Queue: 2 jobs
Job 1
Amino acid sequence: MVTTIGGPRVLLRQLRETMAEPLASQDRLDKIVGLIAENMRADVCSFYVLRDDGALELFATRGLKAESVHMTTLRLGEGLVGLIAAEAEPLSLDDAPSHPAFAYRPETGEEKYNSFLGVPVLRAGQTLGVLVVQNAERRHYGEDETEAMLTTATILAEMIATSDFDNLIKPGSDIDLRRPRMFNGVSFTDGIALGTVVLHDPRVVVTNFIAEDTDAEKQRLDAALASMRVSIDAMLDHGDMQPTSDHREILETYRMFANDRGWVNRLTEAIDNGLSAEAAVERVQNDTRARMQRQTDPYIRDRLHDLDDLANRLLRVLTGDGQTLGRKELPDNAILVARNMGPAELLEYDRKKLRGVVLEEGGATAHVAIVARSLGIVAVGQAQSIVSMCETGDDIIIDGPLGQVHLRPTPDIEQTYVDKVRISARRRAHYAALKDRPSVTKDGIEITLLHNSGLVADLPMLDDTGAAGVGLFRTELQFMIASRLPRLAEQVDLYAEAMQIAGTRPVVFRLLDIGGDKVVPYLRSAAEENPAMGYRSIRLGLDRPGLLRTQIRALLLAAHGRPLKILVPMVTETFEFRQTKLVLRKEIERLKRAGQTVPEKIEIGAMVEVPSLLFELDQLLPEADFVSIGSNDLVQFLTAADRANPRVSKAYDPIALPRLRAIRLVVDAAARHEKPVTMCGELAGKPMEALALMAIGMTRLSMGPASIGPIKEMILNLELRPIQEAVAAALSVGADGHSIRELLTEWVEKQNLPMG
């Protein structure tokens, strides 16, 4: 039975008037709980706030003893109030003292009250506090009264989030909403970044919570839902949408939720209780998020992201709010926080002010991670639920090497990282002082250090590191960040600019390496069970000769007569390499017939990353001018371990005996045929792994710019020949059981080598 006076809409109007009055914060809160008690015909109304230490503190009451305010506390999970906070679910009882969770606090005088209704106060699915009404007489609080309390709690949640609330907090304490949090994620890049949060998709700020006309609000909701459904349908019907893409599956899920009657009914009920359309969306999503966050089923938790995104879409339609922060308008020391983002979106931001990126999703091999590494931006992924727990402007620290993110760090943690940054700056200055020194070991072995690149923006770092050139220029990044297939002229401009910046230093351009985990939406392809070993790289290029010819033509034109190096990715057998060379010869002849300048020297190499090619090296190398090893894929295929799956990829040491023997096959074959060989996979940029590669005779290493300094410092302090002898003995037939990593660790200690 409904026993409220005038219903929740009357109470909401009273609350709005109270919020506008010139009252002190405690007086305003006291008046609010009084209004709730009167409207609910309750003897008691109490408001508890969750503190950062996990205690629920009584912040205001009407009916309990006044001296208990800011004195009475319950632990999270303790008592009825603690139970509601822990489970984020309402609780209605007609005999509260008999409930097994009931906790008696004598200072409150609540022992005489029997009936109890408590609801969580939620914001972005987080419990901020608990709102309670009680009565001495036994009565049952029904669904309508529970709904009225939840609606009121929505207003209180916004009040807690304002700075006006701060003066109610005891010195040395804070509310849970603003407590420091630490997230363990996956490292994308090295480095440390301190800055302030900028949400990539800013949450819509709801300012109008109370409905003046519920019928008008329901009409606004219906119109917004219809508009959103039309936009989702239009995206699904778009001609470029692949029938089996992940993007399409997400949109199909959106469409299912957008047409779910249960969801729409809950939104309508919230409006009937006096909330505006946008406040109703926020209220329903708060409840949904709180419930789904407590589920252990990963499928349900994944759907939470879909519902969050859908709710944000609906809020933007209702408020007409586009992106409130321009992509290039960033504060100093900005750190982007997002659920996920593509490489093109990252490149839209002002890189002079951008210090780091934190994602809830993604892996170290994601496209955005590759771009972040190229730009030298500190990045961490898989920081679960960070988007809902932070606000634009929050202090944040990213620890790249550890894959940790500190949100709202304590002063001592912040000082620790400030000291680390100072030490890091001194190390960078030390490495910069080495840039002009030849990269030669103490026993006279020269090691060529090169950059991995893919963006014109990171090529100026060649001057900063002193690298000998670019050992791998990933041309696919231009295709991945574009919304359509780059035209010939656009490709020519990019490659020409890259060569212009590099000057006399060589640049090895790898032909288009897409497919697998590198999805380009405008190039249609059928769904594959195992895309990493599917229709990708040179297989795709040879099957689509127009695509391959255009890129080779662009490279030839961009050279303007200068020397040109081209690398063919994912060669599986020599025949494919010969086919690519044939395309190159035809394009050269075409240029000559047209009277255009041909590069003075053209070298074409093969990338060794498919294990079958290890058994064709003596057929391949006479055809190639050079070879490069792609350790990422080679190790993945050798171990049958998906490099994007941390559960298996970490189980296999890439420099253990079987993998190092395979790499040595390439080094030895290249030496027999007197052809240069370069390691351009991730192994080259890690000191211990780089030492292993040099120990088997590899003298050309290509890596991310940030790795050049540490690797060069190690080389300058290294006596390589005795280590080569020790490793050769360990790799010999019958030497199984030796750990290469342990062996190298002993030599590192013996020679006191700096390891970055």
Note: The two ends are 71 Å apart (CA to CA).
Job 2
Amino acid sequence: MDNIYFLIMVALAVLAIADLVVGVSNDAVNFLNSAIGSKALSFKTIMIVASIGIACGAIFSSGLMEVARKGIFNPGEFYFDEIMFIFVAVMITDILLLDFFNTLGMPTSTTVSIVFNLLGAAVAMALIKIGAANGNFSDVVNYINTEKAVEIIVGILSSVVIAFSIGAVVQWVSRLLLSYNFQKKPKWTGAIFGGLALSAITYFILIKGISGTPFADRTYGFIGNMTIKAFLETSVYQVIVVNFLAWAVISYVLILFAKTNIYKLIIGVGTFSLALAFAGNDLVNFIGVPIAGLQSYQAWSASGIPASEFSMEVLSTKVETPTLLLFISGMVMVATLWLSKKARYVADTEINLSREGEANERFQPNYLSRSLVRYTIAVSEWASSMVPSNVKAAVDKRFQKPVINLSKDKVHHLPAFDMIRASVNLMVAGILISVATSYKLPLSTTYVTFMVAMGTSLADRAWGAESAVYRVAGVLNVIAGWFSTAIIAFLASGTILALISFGKGAAIAILLFASVLLLVRNYISYNKKTKEIKVEDRLRRAESSSIQGVIEESAANIANVVKRSKKIYSNSINGLAKQDLNFLKKNKKQGNKLAGEIEDLREHTFYFIKNLEEAHIGASNFYINAMGHLTDVSQSLEYIGKVSYNHVHNNHKKLKYNQIKELKEIDQKLEELFDRTQKAFEAKSFEQIGAILDSKQDLYDMVSQKIDRQVSRTRTEESSPKNTTLYFSLLLETRDLMTAMMDLLEQYFQQHDSSITPAKITEKK
């Protein structure tokens, strides 16, 4: 039986590495987003700065894993075997939960995750112990540190509101003072802003970074034989004032003599500070439980007492983690930062929610987001009516954004926000976390950094009328994910603990195997999703300004649509013939995907028209009409895929042999049409379109004949209303599909022909 605990230790070591990987993938968003979003520094520089911060934070960490050891439960109430089962349950749940959120691209709190995992597992074990002893279940409070749990919950609720509000206020004041033309302001304004920001960030490094290290508990003569921690706690105002004056002078000297962009320096130092604090303080979330398990195992092994009788009171004492383990942890975190694609996916969520102007909106509006936006607009209009018009004009001028004429594709190469907002994000997050740490208030760095970024976005008017409902829906989704993290962690870890407690070694082996399978499945699913996003088959937006340029440039798009249309239509008919529900479901998704891409092209129309030169304004009509025809094609395919899937999904009768045969005849003719069209557009041989158009009437006649035959069948032999409805729907939608395709071909053929032979323009009109 003793061997099982050694194997548990091996499992905990492996789980620790896995937790470091998924944890960094989630928490990298906290210190990378401001630098990446503002593009103040190159991506390589950002990663190097963050890596140094992580390495320093991990290596010089105090190594005191108090939360995992005694912060949530009272260790003296449990025996060694019970503690080990709790730790295994916690680690399995934590890894799976964080990986789930990473795969979704949703930032969550590793602190909340580990705390509620510990709470859930400890409560479950306490209930099992009480039940076995026929005790009173109200005694569960003796096993749990309830005061700490309540503090964390209150900290979560308060930090969300406070971070959002303060971030919004500070950003509004900063923008009012500096505007968007901050680079042209007098040098002293940059020096004062630099002094404020850098002193706040430095104080954050002292409080959150250095105060947690062993150096902070040593006495130093230059600060009156006090420890650094004591000095920082008793001399708050002196440290802040001296810090500000020193950094303001340094900033002015750098700006004046070294021509330094002080905002880039702020962002670089801020990124380093958050990475340092993350590694030094959040390390407990990833390796605290395995370290506590190791120390428990060492104490039990030396005792010679049976596992079921050895009290874990030893966990109540302070034991430092070996520096080697901290070094290894730091290296794993740095490697994950460079290699993890999910870390960047999670970061994209926050950056897009705070992006200035257009973004790929991931979240759909809901009732709550619409209501909040509507209410906020009403309040804003009321408040605005109370302000004198000259004051409003002056404020609006400070918030006036520089005009940049770029296509939508190029918008995404611009910074998501400027360096002022990035600096405020880092400065405010650092201040709030420092203050909370100095007062020993529990909070989540993820919650604070995310909500500060959302508050600055709102104050900076990044959420306009065209994006507000999407952005608010995104914020609400992320917040809902935070609270669900706590609930899921508590319930899941408790459930897993119960399984382990009753199943012992066999249950642990099965759960570990199942966890590996789930992680591999998520990894494969995420890679597949990533490849679909990057697939070269996607439609490309037009950039040309002339009609001929649009014709040439969009040829690949048309060939792409035609190729995919042939496949979607054929799959619909074949799926109906085979009654293959899964096949039809996948095909319906392909139709929806194509429709979504074409809709994205339609949304590009605004940018396309804005970029047109006056001499080529006619290209806008061509582009708009082409988008209309493509939309008609996609809608017909979407409808055909949907009704085919629904028919089989509802278990209606199969189509009859003659109906399937006739549909396959149409499919064959359409395949020929699509193949010829695809080749013409791929080769840009638009003169071939004329020969394709000659077959238009034959296709229409074929569909009309099928309709007439079905009418006759319905009157004489057809007995299934659903089959008749489906068949007529397919035929009529096929005719609409042909019409849209032929109209598109005629548009390209006529315009191409007229561009080559100008004399033909009059004839065609």
Note: Confidence is low (pLDDT under 50) at residues 406-412, 533-539, 756-765.
